[in-house]
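Ticket #4471: complex job returned nothing on first submit. Input attached below:
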Amino acid sequence: MSPKTLYDKIWDAHVAHQSDDGTCLLYIDRHLVHEVTSPQAFEGLRMAGRKVRAPEKTIAVPDHNVPTTLDRANASTMTEESRIQVDALDKNAKDFGINYYPVSDVRQGIVHIVGPEQGWTLPGMTVVCGDSHTATHGAFGALAHGIGTSEVEHVLATQTLIQKKSKNMKVEITGKLRPGVTAKDITLSVIGATGTAGGTGYVIEYCGEAIRDLSMEGRMTVCNMAIEGGARAGLIAPDEKTYAYCMGRPHAPKGAAWEAAVSWWKTLYSDDDAHWDKVITLKGEDIAPVVTWGTSPEDVLPITATVPAPSSFKGGKVEAAQRSLDYMGLTAGQKLTDIQIDTVFIGSCTNGRIEDLRAAAAILKGKKVKDGLRAMVVPGSGLVRAQAEEEGIAQIFIDAGFEWRLAGCSMCLAMNPDQLAEGERCASTSNRNFEGRQGYKGRTHLVSPAMAAAAAITGHLTDVREMM
Amino acid sequence: MEKFTHLSGIAAPMPLVNIDTDMIIPKVFLKTIKRSGLGVNLFDEMRYDRQGNEIADFVLNKPAYRQAQIIVAGDNFGCGSSREHAPWALADFGIKAVISTSFADIFYNNCFKNGMLPIVLPQEAIDVLMKDAEKGANARMEVDLEAQTVTTSEGQSFSFEVDAFKKHCLLNGLDDIGLTMENVSAIDDFEARAKIERPWA
Ligand code: SF4
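Support reply: We reran it on our side without changes. The output follows.
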């Protein structure tokens, strides 16, 4: 047999039909659904008189525009339009008989956090969702990617996706990370090195010692941002850590089925002599805590650097960088650590898991948020929230002066009332620093949870290593 | 789905790189449960000021480009979220083709599902097309999907690649789900096999 990559193996196991030109029907094991990208798909099904082919493999949860304030049970906290979307999801879940975690359920949260937490996401699966950060689930060695609403409808109706195979790209992070450097710094540094289109046409497999050393939470952070590097999906081969995370989850297999599953999962790795179309290698020890300075996730620099001059770029990037600086209100040559911030946001499917909250709390313990600064923690799910309360982390945040919110996407995309005001500047653990992403004319600096906590204390972008 | 065969239209130049889906259609407009009506909010934050007045120097607000059907764009157009609202908004505005050196994967796929053609060409070709687009309303660019060519107002032609299956669907306005349903027995067979091989999935 010819050697295969992990991607090749998962792909081959899911091809239900292949046409002569290589177009495949890829069978989908798990379809995650949220309120923003699904209403038109369900409407399409209704209009065509179609059913959901595999409701037992379809999981829905509202997350994008639900309020995260403690009074959200009170319907008036939601705008009319948001309520219509959430109500539509309620109704669609009921009418089509799919698995559902409503806003009132403690298990509700960001779809990419709920899937793994409930054991829906397992190694070797194909997972899709009408959301680009579906890449997150690749941390389990699952082939997971975002799809558009037409494709959501296609998967609902047929449980397959029309796909052509992507190319294989290997991103290796060798050696150990230095203290203060996290999964977020890895994934941002990779995008900084490859650009936001560097992964276009590829599925990335992340490997190397620094990746193996990461917890499952950290691996999810890395894969989450594969899409920001342009890749269709990110993957990490499953190992003992993966199995340990999955074991005992509500929808993970049990008993003999578990044993059978693990024995298949153990075959899921890239063969030594597998072919790679592109390889990128970074040294773990070269990675520093990073921040973004611009309005594209590729605008990444170590926290010790200065704001770059647009003239230092080439081609269309010169104009884009100038536009970024104007938008961000920064000048070339300014030290990144001199940038004052108004807001800190800790949360999102990138960094809203328990480990992220622990990392931030470790920096915040016994400290106070800088006067006048708004700081907010939005746990990724109701269960993360509950665990943080049990561990005493919630109290550390509250004592430091953070708002302690309910689960949802919140200020990651600011579809609910959690938004930046015009000109406000935020250190954020989310994944996108696009113009207007966190509010009209809001300014976003992407950072790790520990860096966000450090910035909350000092009121400016800060090298977390000075606080450790 | 509407067929796409041949297009002769005004092309708007947007040389900015990394035009993302948040720029194409800001999230405040994602709260709709419909596909239509998003065209007025296309590029909303670049096109209107906070009071809702048009920003005169934004390309689609210029008289020459108000009827544009083609966008010639900088690298990596459509990066960001999976929101199909982006191609819906473009299509609703009247855009039928976008030409760039590269597109984000999900956006690229989403275009085809909405009768819109994303065209990838090398930088040299984009430079020529961008110049042509800058000529405004009197310059009409031609896109021929059958022949896989883009032609400037001065008759300079560039060939582009497109996946044969996607081309077929676009030329004939075919609906994916209907096509896939023709292979439903293959899906049935796959499920039967998977039940035995991976019963936990
Ligand atoms: S947390 Fe942000 S990136 Fe993640 S699913 Fe929600 S909106 Fe998308």
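The radius of gyration of chain B is 19 Å. Closing as resolved unless it happens again.
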